[in-house]
Specification:
Blueprint: H1 10-22, H2 31-34, H3 40-46, H4 55-60, H5 62-65
């Protein structure tokens, strides 16, 4: 799945996370290739699920949720 195919707010969160790890935003990149894995949240997003956006996640992405 490409980042551009994600629904909001997951798409914007993925782009922010991508930029933090790779110093660039590229929504044509595949989600799987974009992140260092180990976070169940992004694994769920990759498989098309929409995991709960907890207060902790909102705090990590203030520009998306303020």
């Amino acid at each position: 799945m490409k980042i551009k195919d994600l629904k909001q707010p997951y798409k914007e969160m993925a782009l922010i996370e991508q930029e933090a790890q790779w110093n660039e935003r590229n929504e044509n990149e595949y989600l799987k290739a974009s992140f260092f894995w180990g976070d169940d949240f992004w694994v769920d997003v990759y498989f098309g699920r929409t995991p709960e956006i907890t207060p902790e996640i909102k705090a990590k992405f203030p520009s998306v949720f303020n």
